[in-house]
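Posted in: Structural Biology > Protein-Ligand Complexes

Title: Requesting predicted complex, S-adenosylmethionine in pocket

I'd be grateful if someone could produce the 3D structure tokens for the following input. Sequence and ligand are given below.
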Amino acid sequence: MASTNAICNLCNQTILELLDFKLLLRYVTGFNQVELITKNEYELSQDELVKLNNLVARRQKGEPLHYILGYKEFYSREFRVTPDTLIPRPETELLVDKVLSIAIPNARLLDLGTGSGCIAVACKLENPNLDVVAVDKYSDTLEVACTNAIQLGAKIKCILSDWFSNVDGLFDVIVSNPPYIAHDDVHLGSLQFEPQHALTDNLDGFSHIKQIIRGSIAHLKKGGYLLFEHGFEQGEMSRKLLHNAGFIDIETIQDYASLDRITLGKYTLRNSNASSI
Ligand SMILES: C[S@@+](CC[C@H](N)C(=O)[O-])C[C@H]1O[C@@H](n2cnc3c(N)ncnc32)[C@H](O)[C@@H]1O
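-- Reply #1 --
Done. Output follows.
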């Protein structure tokens, strides 16, 4: 038997960050943050110790903490995540901020590549007047988004679609965090636990962005906006692609590390040339 207090001290013997270790300990005991401190003489059962050791071993092998816990906080809500979904990143909250700042009342919003549903659900919960459609190509992924929407009380429509293939109608805002990592990017090596189809296009990183811009021309209302997340070296090219497709008021937003992360533009021309990108 070992108390939670003694177990926390044992954390020094693992290579885990203390915060990760405490979250695993809370997961095993079911304690909240306060209980973890106040019940520091609680004796873990043999079962709990075995379970904790297994979780620590998984984490030590590099499995992301949030796949082990099964959730990730995004926009102050807990989203279920599984190995079928990308783990939402803090910088994607900036995309939500921007959508909320430009969406007109009762706007139709399309979230392409919804993953856990984090963008679509957060937007709907923050602005219940939005009419939100969330799309993903993979059914196991879309199921997680739907579950999150139901559990968090967001009434959104989930559609299985290869980008725009099953999407009807026009939208005021189209948002996406597409797979934008190039096949030869060194960062892919450290992201082996997350679904590769959520991360990379297996090409130069721009093929999905180009498809989304082309499709948006046919699915945006006049004066509607397209916003998408991209890699920190993809800002200039993203602006160029939007410009060539007939967008105006093009802007790139930087993330918390002052790196180019989100580009957006307003669509005004109904007859622009999609083949120019
Ligand atoms: C970078 S993840 C973004 C997930 C989520 N929106 C987020 O920000 O955390 C990209 C998402 O696009 C989806 N996806 C990839 N190719 C797609 C396609 N052709 N059509 C629709 N969705 C696609 C993936 O399944 C994945 O969920």
